[in-house]
């Protein structure tokens, strides 16, 4: 264990505040910290999302003719659960990450750790209250659908434990330690998917039982996964326990904050995080409670057909698109503590630089990922579900919408990092109004795609307001962003054309309804497009500007001059 630093040695204190939990680490720039954090969070999030999508292949097979109905039921239950989970978590993890980072920058490590302990009491209490409301309020929340009730009962158990797990992730993130969060997230998903597949196989594949009961067990898997993730975080906490104690002893202890003030601080910071954190879920709930009513008033479709349509855009396509959006989520989590530190120092120039870097890095990752998903929409949808022209079209359109949602995820986190929570909430409410205004005419005209269009319009409006405010207050180097964006869009479009052309060319000779063929087409097309984007990025040195020395090593390894 490292020697305890001298409180009067500013260089030691700067080192402690930069990367306090891992010994032997050098002080790094904010860009390096953001990149390292993004790598951890992106890896954890991507692998988790892939696991959360791959299970669909056998799951759909075992549910057979009930698969679309099961997906619709799953989506209805999960949308309600997500809102309750966000309420139970209450934005506390992100608020804790922000405030812990703030206190660490002031060399008040003990105060940050005390804040975490007080937050534990809040997270446990909110988890119990929200779980009870979700469980006993299920009949009222189901909107008259009896099959939703057992699903909500199963999900209530996860609400008990996930808030405390999320709070601990936020604590580590406040120290710019993204590894514990990423690994626990992956283990959580692994345990969840394992339980889902075993129960789905036994109930539907072996015993051919009740599909509603099988869906309920698939949702109860969230509780099983939470236990796995929580155990990983507990191991990390024990690993860093001595280091945390050393940091607490090295604190300046110049700030005196009462317990009541700590609770007020947590709650004041958390409330905006609840609203912003649930933004996408709120838009999905608007779809859930309005789509069926609008379609029933303006069409003659049966309930089963409407459930199928809803399953395609709200669950099937959304499940795959969330893999792409997780790139933005990973960056968003990383940026909050870094921006909070810069805000604490009053360093407007650093804030401007970090915002510019975050937007550039987001564009470098998100745009090709979204266009790549759109290019292989047909084989991807066929592989995970079944061949469907409608499903393919919705997945392709939703892939473009994902870019808008990703931008919101990153820049709303930036607003939170710089303490502009209330303004971010106000802008979001404007977007909700836009969503409501656009929802009815667009759903009437375009049905399922209309819901996605109104979502894109609402979030695009929010994004414009946020970017305008950040630029007015701190300045965004749009010249640098535009230079990067021009290359990113050009290479991404080239990648899209190649991947789309390869996919459709291969389907001239392959069965478009075969899952094996879909897997081959998706892999070959994605590889061809991805290699083109990688080559262009390395050849033009764009990757160096985004990834630093990592890109140079990769270029040398691939012998690209």
From TrEMBL:
This is Polysaccharide biosynthesis family protein. One of its GO terms (cellular component) is plasma membrane. It is a multi-pass membrane protein. Its main location: membrane. It is found in: Cell membrane. CDD domains: MATE_SpoVB_like. The keyword Manganese does not apply. The chain crosses the membrane at residues 39-66, 78-97, 118-138, 150-172, 193-214, 220-238, 266-286, 320-339, 359-377, 397-415, 427-443, 449-467, 488-510, 516-536. Pfam families: Polysacc_synt. The keyword Transmembrane applies. It comes from Pediococcus claussenii (strain ATCC BAA-344 / DSM 14800 / JCM 18046 / KCTC 3811 / LMG 21948 / P06). Keywords: Cell membrane, Membrane, Transmembrane, Transmembrane helix. InterPro entries: PG_synth_SpoVB (IPR024923), Poly_Biosynth_Transport (IPR050833), Polysacc_synth (IPR002797).
